[in-house]
Write a structure and sequence with these properties.
135 residues, mainly alpha, two-stranded antiparallel sheet, binds zinc ion, Flagellar operon protein TIGR03826
Length: 135
């Protein structure tokens, strides 16, 4: 058992991973999310503060949904999101498609690199060392 305090209501609950939020709160947040999502469809020109006030959620929570790419905004929305890397306007998430693509490439490269390359030079050194011992 891994007991933690829920980040939303403060009650102790059995933590199983992800966000430290208890099940009833997760359900409540999910209901809020559906409400906000529908609200944005009905009110595409609403700003962040207005959405938060009308739906009784925090702007922080809305921003988190944006980062999780769960909320999308149309181009006429006053909520203008910028790619955190290059500053291009985006509709959801933290980065534009281009930056996300190059980041995925960088990740693949660092994952692919280490193993095969390191082994060869080590073998050569061993051989050289053995020859030196033989003579
Ligand atoms: Zn809770
Ligand atoms: Zn970008």
């Amino acid at each position: 058992m891994n007991l933690r305090n829920c980040a939303r209501c403060g009650k102790m609950f059995n933590y199983i991973g992800g966000q430290p939020i208890c099940d009833p709160c997760k359900k409540a947040i999910e209901e809020d999310f559906q409400k906000v999502k529908q609200y944005i469809v009905d009110n595409p020109r609403a700003g962040l503060k207005q959405i938060a006030e009308d739906n009784q959620v925090t702007t922080k929570q809305i921003q988190q949904w944006i980062r999780e790419e769960r909320l999308m905004f149309t181009s006429d929305s006053p909520i203008q999101l910028q790619c955190e890397n290059c500053g291009q306007l985006i509709q959801t998430g933290r980065f534009c498609a281009k930056c996300k693509g190059s980041m995925a490439n960088n990740l693949n490269q660092t994952f692919a690199k280490p193993q095969p390359q390191i082994q060869q030079p080590v073998k050569k050194e061993q051989k050289a060392g053995m020859r030196f011992l033989d003579t």
